[in-house]
Amino acid sequence: MDSRETRSLWVFGYGSLCWHPGFQFGASTVGYIRHYVRRFWQGNSTHRGTVTKPGRVATLVEEPNGATWGVAYELTGEAALSYLETREVSLGGYTTNVVTFFPRDASLNPFPVLLYIATPSSREWAGSAPLHEIATQITQCSGPSGHNVEYLLRLAQFMREKVPEGYDEHLATLETLVRLRIKENNLCLKALMGDGPTEPQAAAAAAAAAANIRQEPQPQEERRDTFQFSTKLPPKKLRCLNV
Ligand code: SIN
Fold first, then answer.
1. pTM for the complete prediction?
2. Strand ranges inside 14-133, DSSP E
3. Where, if anywhere, are coiled coils annotated (predicted)?
């Protein structure tokens, strides 16, 4: 029987969970949810920023005609849920919601998914701001999981490559503005991007989700702390010419 017809719990990722799930899962599939749009309106001082210099990460904002594309993952054990609870709720300030997921593969029926969402009452809520200000903030912040630029660009790349039909103007405009800031300030993109998706599981997960195929659960590889690496360098060392 299709696992979507079982009692499995599925989680919908629309932010870093798309390119770095970080937990063991069974099947995964690309698709979308309705009535929400993705916005970089949640602040972050634990992964992609610090208390004194919080970064900005994605959340979902209700919009009657909106839709957000991402990936649904089938959870296979208690450990995954408690990992997500720590990462998204305790550290990220998100709360949970359950919505209907529509798989890209039209032969699959819609099914319920759990998702993590921030609202104006969430801890770290940053809210709306002009896109050029959000882009500047993202360009200037990093935290224990890596630079805020990495978060944005890996998500934009994932959407462009794996979900081309899910064009997201907010995400695409931010990507353009951030790439412009990087150029204007002569920052080193390679240093900002850290080790990211070279992680075998993240890459395999992205490929599997895009192809709508079942992936065997893998032991999670330790993610290298790119923050520790980059903060040991004086800021000017992030400039390409000095690396
Ligand atoms: C998600 O990816 O679905 C939640 C937001 C995040 O952790 O980036």
1. 0.82
2. 25-44, 55-75, 95-103, 111-117
3. none
